[in-house]
């Protein structure tokens, strides 16, 4: 992952912590703990109870579910619910250490900032650190220590006084070293993913975040003018107000003070230049329905946009574009909707799933088990994020999607992949072509699920397999209630802040609630002809992996 979202998060948190420590340190730390621990305990209550129901026998390490100074323990069933809490544990350590770190930093700013990369070098090359939960915490602290202290530098002003030459030289040098280490040690870690390579992550994040924060400070980029746009300012205010539940929460701002008005600073990579090639293998294009008119308001009545917000059976439109499909899942509506979110689709999914989408896709890759020279059809591939693991295994993968906008966005990034436009209910491939067919988070958007499952069966060779990854129904009733509340209430507001088309994510929430549960989907697979159908729950049933085989 090239965009160091966690590095940026820890740098911003360091900036806010430095500002807060203008007040007595003990009160600041207590304030942070009051915001951090209660949501953690609330989450832990459901997760721990669920794991106990699934035969988990905790030891004394259960204390980490009370004070998360180490990774909270759990069993394999709840792994995806407790493993993601590493960032919270890391943030807690940074909060506790910040008074001392800030005091040391202000004694000698530049040397301390540069030396903050030393711990990760020591752990990588000299001493691997202690085993167990404390060792894991030490690795994460070392990985993001530079970013946290860089937040101090951003707050105190040294970045603004740094000249362009050294700032650019240091940031580029760190990024080049991080990228080189990731590529040269790919065999050791089995992936190019920076999340699996602490040293590469530390240096890439250090260079990237240094460049961003230096540019903002040096050029005095100010986002305060955005507050003149009332709708945007209101969205940002709501989004930041939710920070009471997040580790990045700052002290409550006073809206009467302009300096305390929240500002959304969003950094992103420059768009990758087009490769100069059109999308290949385009069989047909699905054009938006010209009969749908843009939403208007006449007098005191409601326009189509307002009516669609209360009627999931109708599409939502804006300036002639379908921004939210109806639950009838007309192909032109769904295609147009995904065309509109293509450019920021991967980033939005990463934010809304709290990074879990990457782990889900890894599980899909394991289930497909692609081998060299095998032919893999990846349906609803979008920008081909899900296709890359298959290509890296040596298989021939065909990313297929009926959103031409998604395919074009993917073609810019991965010009060498054979992107193909196609409808899952009318696949443009011959019978018995592929060794495996997979679809991740796309079957729910197909108008006729049963026809699509039969089409997948048709193009799969005898002995081949299908793997379906889709949102599903949490298995534990209390967790299902919490999940549903999060989905319906939190998803649309967050999407407004990070997505180019938030209406599409309202449709996402609606379609998930209307989707059949695990046994019902398994039965539909059997009716389509698939045998040996089974499923496995991920994240407590939030997502389910279904697999079936075509008999020889």
Number of strands: 9
Mean pLDDT: 76
- Structural class call reads alpha/beta
Q: What's the multimeric state?
A: single chain
**Spatial strand sequence of the major β-sheet:** 5-4-3-6-7-9-8
For the record, give the distance between the C-alpha atoms at the N and C termini, rounded to a whole number. Answer: 39 Å
Question: How would a textbook summarize the main sheet?
Answer: 7 strands, mixed
**Are there runs of 5+ residues with pLDDT below 50, and where?**
239-329
Q: State which percent range the strand residues make up.
A: 5-15%
* Helix content estimate: 40-55%
Q: Over the alpha carbons, how many angstroms does the gyration radius reach? A: 25 Å
Shape: globular
Count of DSSP helices? 22
Can you give me a brief rundown of this structure?
The chain has 552 residues and is of the alpha/beta class. The chain is built from 22 helices and nine strands. It has helices at residues 5-20, 25-53, 79-82, 86-107, 109-115, 118-125, 133-156, 158-161, 164-184, 186-189, 198-218, 230-241, 304-310, 331-341, 345-352, 356-368, 388-392, 404-413, 449-459, 477-498, 503-514, 518-527; strands at residues 316-318, 321-324, 375-379, 396-401, 420-421, 434-440, 460-471, 531-538, 543-549.
Per-chain topology:
Blueprint: H1 5-20, H2 25-53, H3 79-82, H4 86-107, H5 109-115, H6 118-125, H7 133-156, H8 158-161, H9 164-184, H10 186-189, H11 198-218, H12 230-241, H13 304-310, E1 316-318, E2 321-324, H14 331-341, H15 345-352, H16 356-368, E3 375-379, H17 388-392, E4 396-401, H18 404-413, E5 420-421, E6 434-440, H19 449-459, E7 460-471, H20 477-498, H21 503-514, H22 518-527, E8 531-538, E9 543-549
Parallel strand pairs: 3-4, 3-6, 4-5, 6-7
Antiparallel strand pairs: 1-2, 7-9, 8-9
Helix pairs in contact: 1-4, 1-7, 1-11, 2-4, 4-5, 4-7, 5-7, 7-11, 9-11, 12-20, 15-20, 20-21
């Amino acid at each position: 992952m090239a965009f160091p979202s966690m590095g940026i998060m820890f740098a911003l948190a360091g900036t806010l912590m430095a500002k807060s420590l203008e007040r007595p340190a003990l009160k600041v730390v207590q304030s942070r703990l009051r915001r951090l621990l209660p949501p953690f305990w609330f989450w832990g209550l459901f997760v721990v109870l669920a794991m106990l129901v699934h035969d988990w026998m905790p030891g004394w390490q259960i204390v980490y579910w009370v004070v998360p100074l180490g990774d909270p323990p759990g069993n394999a069933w709840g792994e995806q619910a407790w493993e993601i809490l590493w960032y919270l544990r890391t943030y807690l350590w940074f909060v506790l250490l910040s008074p001392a770190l800030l005091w040391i930093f202000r004694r000698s700013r530049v040397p301390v900032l540069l030396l903050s990369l030393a711990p990760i070098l020591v752990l990588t090359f000299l001493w691997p650190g202690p085993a167990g939960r404390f060792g894991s915490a030490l690795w994460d602290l070392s990985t993001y220590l530079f970013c946290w202290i860089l937040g101090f530098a951003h707050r105190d002003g040294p970045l603004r006084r740094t000249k362009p030459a050294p700032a650019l030289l240091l940031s580029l040098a760190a990024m080049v070293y991080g990228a080189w280490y990731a590529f040269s040690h790919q065999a050791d870690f089995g992936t190019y993913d920076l999340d699996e390579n602490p040293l590469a992550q530390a240096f890439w994040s250090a260079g990237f975040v240094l460049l961003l924060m230096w540019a903002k400070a040096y050029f005095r980029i100010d986002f305060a003018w955005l507050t003149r746009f009332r709708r945007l300012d209101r969205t940002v205010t709501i989004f930041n107000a939710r920070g009471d539940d997040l580790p990045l929460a700052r002290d409550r701002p006073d809206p009467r003070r302009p300096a305390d008005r929240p500002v959304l600073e969003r950094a992103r990579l420059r768009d990758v230049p087009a490769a100069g090639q059109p999308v290949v293998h385009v069989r047909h294009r699905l054009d938006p329905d010209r009969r749908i008119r843009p939403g208007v308001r006449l007098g005191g009545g409601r326009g189509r946009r307002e009516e669609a917000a209360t009627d999931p059976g109708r599409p939502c439109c804006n300036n002639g574009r379908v921004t939210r499909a109806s639950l009838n899942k007309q192909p032109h509506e769904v295609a147009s909707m995904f065309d509109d979110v293509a450019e920021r689709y991967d980033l939005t999914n990463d934010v809304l799933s709290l990074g879990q989408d990457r782990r889900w896709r890894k599980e899909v890759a394991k289930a497909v088990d692609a081998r060299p020279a095998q032919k893999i059809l990846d349906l609803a591939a979008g920008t081909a994020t899900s296709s890359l693991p298959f290509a890296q295994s040596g298989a021939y993968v065909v990313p297929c999607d009926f959103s031409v906008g998604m395919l074009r966005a993917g073609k810019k990034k991965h010009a060498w992949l054979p992107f193909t436009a196609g409808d899952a209910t009318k696949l443009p491939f011959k019978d018995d072509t592929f060794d495996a067919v997979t679809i991740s988070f796309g079957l729910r958007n197909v108008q006729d699920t049963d026809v699509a499952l039969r089409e997948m069966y048709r193009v799969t060779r005898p002995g081949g397999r299908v793997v379906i990854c889709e949102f599903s129904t949490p298995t534990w009733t209390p967790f299902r209630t919490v999940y549903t509340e999060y989905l319906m209430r939190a998803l649309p507001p967050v999407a407004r802040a990070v997505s180019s088309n938030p209406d599409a994510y309202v449709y996402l929430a609606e379609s998930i609630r209307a989707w059949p549960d695990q046994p019902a989907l398994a039965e539909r697979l059997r009716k389509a002809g698939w045998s040996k159908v089974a499923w496995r729950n991920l994240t407590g049933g939030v997502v389910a992996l279904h697999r079936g085989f075509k008999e020889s």
